[in-house]
């Protein structure tokens, strides 16, 4: 069973549903920044800038 805890971008309430039961807006899975695929490109970008 796959459980993904989601969070409402509006009220920050945690829920397992795709929609916040309070605000009725779409929730999303909170992703730590270091796991973001965009950060990978950020590292390349920093490398290009600072020459690490
Ligand atoms: Zn909400």
Question: What this model shows, in words?
Answer:
The chain has 52 residues and is of the alpha+beta class. It is built from one helix and two strands; from the N terminus they run ββα. A two-stranded antiparallel sheet has the order 1-2. It has one domain: H/ACA ribonucleoprotein complex, subunit Nop10 (Rubrerythrin, domain 2). Bound molecules: zinc ion (ZN).
Could you provide a short overview of the structure?
The chain is α+β, with helices and mostly antiparallel strands and about 50 residues long. The chain has one helix spanning about 35-50, and strands at about 5, 15. The protein has a two-stranded antiparallel ribbon with strand order 1-2.
Major β-sheet strand ordering: 1-2
Oligomer: single chain
Number of DSSP-assigned strands? 2
Largest sheet: 2 strands, antiparallel
Shape descriptor? elongated
Give the total of domains.
1
Which structural class do you get from the secondary structure elements?
alpha+beta
Rg calculated over all Cα atoms: 16 Å
- Give the helix proportion (percent range): 25-40%
Q: CATH superfamily name?
A: H/ACA ribonucleoprotein complex, subunit Nop10
CATH 2nd-level architecture: Single Sheet
How many H/I helices?
1
Order of helices and strands: EEH
Provide mean pLDDT, rounded. Answer: 80
The first-level CATH class is given as Mainly Beta
Strand content: 5-15%
The set of bound ligands, ions and cofactors reads: zinc ion
Low-confidence stretches: none
CATH-defined topology = Rubrerythrin, domain 2
């Amino acid at each position: 069973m796959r459980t993904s805890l989601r969070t409402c971008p509006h009220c920050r309430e945690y829920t397992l549903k795709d929609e916040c039961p309070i605000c009725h807006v779409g929730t999303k899975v909170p992703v730590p920044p270091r796991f973001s695929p965009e950060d990978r490109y950020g590292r390349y970008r920093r490398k290009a800038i600072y020459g690490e």
